[in-house]
Amino acid sequence: MPATENQSQFMLTLNITSYTNNSSKPWTEPTFTVAARVRVIVTFCFFFMAACSNLAVLYSVTKKRRKSHIRILILSLTIADLMITFIVMPLDAIWNTTVQWYAGDMACKVLNFLKLFAMYSSALVLVVISLDRHSAILNPFSFAGASHRNKIMLSIAWVTSVLLASPQLFIFRLHTVKNENFTQCVTYGSFKKHWQETVYNMFTFTTLYITPLTVMMICYARILWEISKQMKDDKKNSGEAALARSKSDHFSKARMKTLKMTIVIVASFIVCWTPYYLLGLWYWFQPGMIQKTPEYVNHTLFLFGLLHTCSDPIIYGLYTPSFREDMMMC
Known about the structure:
The chain is mostly helical. Helices cover 77% and strands 2% of the residues. The two termini are 42 Å apart.
């Protein structure tokens, strides 16, 4: 199922298509099922967890007196997570509760744009973090220009997120089922041919998940390769060389700690969102399967994806003693 749609919306599109192509077939209206109720309850629980923890990270990062080029990266990731927390989570919970759309055509377009913008920004900021760690490990002498470089990359990431999410403003619209008192915010009618919608969904899937995943995996694969190579070289070095390296030991440990933190954050993103995106890919090519797949499967995988937004602050806290100190002082 597309990451830009919830289940009732996707089911409505299938029902409308079937109803239009075969007018003798009775209209089936989506309902607020037990599985959807559980999804809403869990989503609100995640909302409170993510809001409190990410706001705590935001407070800790912004109050730090010592400037660090990694700070702006964590700040951007926290802002992206807060956007998912305050846009994606409430929108999904309320939409699943009401089943149909009551907020009007403009809200239909803008909220779906903001939803995808939040998801793009989260993924692309993780790409910037991966590129920063790649540069820090493979080109340690480029440390001096890291802050300026990160600001440029983050600017590109945020602008790109806006551009990639902007089609949502044009393809989403209100649709009222003929002779039925049911209105939904859908993409139905925006594409003349089914293959055009498939191409758009595949483009979104590629830019939202496949491309960021590929860049992150290449970065960390090269990082791990470089670390492995350095460890092998260390064994061959003489005691004199080891003594010289000890002078920069503190910096190396700090750099490695940051690397471990970012690897865990990226791994969390991959583990949490991969099942849901793979399910969406399956639905795009086999749309009829959504009616055969148990409803709780889609709900569970989407909630598992949202868990990433809750896990980022926890990971940051585990690897950042100053954050724990800030929380104890509150």
